[in-house]
Amino acid sequence: MRTTGSAALVFLLFLSPALAWPQTALPDPQSGRAQGQQTEQSGSIRDSTAQADAGTQSEFWIAVTTPVPVPVLAGQETENSGGKQQTKRMFWVVPNFAAVSADTKLPPLSVREKFALARQDSVDYSSFVWAGLQAGQSMALNSDPALGHGLAGYSRYYWRAFADQASGSFFTEAIVPALTHEDPRYYTLGHGGFFRRTAYALSQVVLTKTDSGGISFNYSEIVGNGMEAGLANLYYPAQERAFRKTAENWGTQLEAASLNNIIREFWPDIRHKLLRRK
Question: What pTM was estimated for this model as a whole?
């Protein structure tokens, strides 16, 4: 039976230090201009004019050196926000192209874009590395004894792990979402306590956004992983093709999806707090 690894996560403390924005002094365009011809009678006028200019100059510099707040657009991250964004890959080896940063609104994906997303999740370099790690784990646990050991055994585990990953991506992110008009992306909650965010991550296995902006049952994840489990019967050993084994494989895929959602939810925090990345 195929297995999936677990991952431990935690930590949540949001720091958003205010940054000081340096201001560049602007030269007074009126400085340097002197009145060439003045009479003795205009002495008092010059004095009063100098006082007025001094007051105007003071107001000018106050206006120039006062920071002007810059509006933050929806979904736009700035340095002040702590930079807790989703990245294309988690830990550099786990594909994460379908994750959306917290408080980000995006237009729906077209059918072509859904297939492009699945392709990206399937053939990125991290996909090959991740399949290699899964194959190594499965062989170490002797998940499918019929596949053997050594380099030949590892190669059998490897291409099957890669096929599982690629077919799963296309079923859950492209084929089923295109038919059901669902959004296959994971929208990070990003705020609230650990248990609230964990519950949200788990709920996204059975609930998802639709292309029209609503919420529906997540056929993409539930049905898509069932289709992947059924397809795997074509290339796994005979003892893995029974109905019970297929059901177990389907459950394993849903377990993996649940763990993946939890890691996705907290990945920006892990990256920001532990890896000291913005």
Answer: 0.69
